[in-house]
Amino acid sequence: MPLTDAEEERLPRWSKWLDLSDRALAVLLLAPAAILLSLIIVYPVGRLVYTSFFNLSLTSGLPAEFVGIDNYRAMIDDPVFWQTLWNTVLITIITVPGALLVGLGLALLANLPFAMQWPVRLSLLIPWALPLSFAGLIFAWFFHSEYGVVNDVLTRLGFGSIIWFNSPNWAFAAICLTIVWKTSSFMALMILAGLQTIPRSLYEAADVDGAGRVRQFFEITLPLLKPSIVVALIFRTITALQTFDIPFMMTGGGPGTSTATLAMYIHQNTVSFLDLGYGSALAVVMFALSMAVTAVYLRIIRTKE
What is the pTM of this model? Predict the structure, then answer.
């Protein structure tokens, strides 16, 4: 029962702070999370954007100088920037659909009614759990021109060996194959989680109606997997745009800059050259590209709801 005016007057003053509206209570409960997000996300991104407007090189010994958008203008005439940006986009275009197709096949395989399913599902975790730099080292050995496993198999099959890392095209192909192998397990785990939510009764009803496996896949499985696939694509696309470890460990960006990514170029400018201003501007471009891709995915989700 609500309190009368006389009862409210007899209450101590501090108790009135406990009588909050729903909106005020929501703001109070969300304030700690908002403050935490501001500290770990908003401030670093804001500081990054702020630094990108300065000429800040730790090797020059000069104080930071405000240069406006000069760092962004410098990118237009920087051929290495365009090369690394193109490499990053190309890696994303190739590896994201490749990982999706391989991951979908692995997820469907892991979802089959095996007598013992845990070895199959455990095998999906191994590539995902393997550190990226370690995977790059392993596949650098696999594709080694003299004692690599891939050339050994090609020789035994009657094909000539390939000097993988001396050719820009072959080196790029080796990197893409490695990334697809490494990331397809993540896609498989995400899709497998979606497969577990599809009721078996839908397939039983389709069997009664005489629908074959192919028709069931396109009319039941694939439509109900779309939310899981979109979420997996968002995460995989963002990480693909930030690709660094595998090409860095396999080729170091070579030959030349033919396999260097935008993240590697940012690392070179900030860590190797200590040019924090230009490196921050490059990082802002990569951040904006990631946000733009995420916005496109989210827009696709909204249009389909």
Answer: 0.85
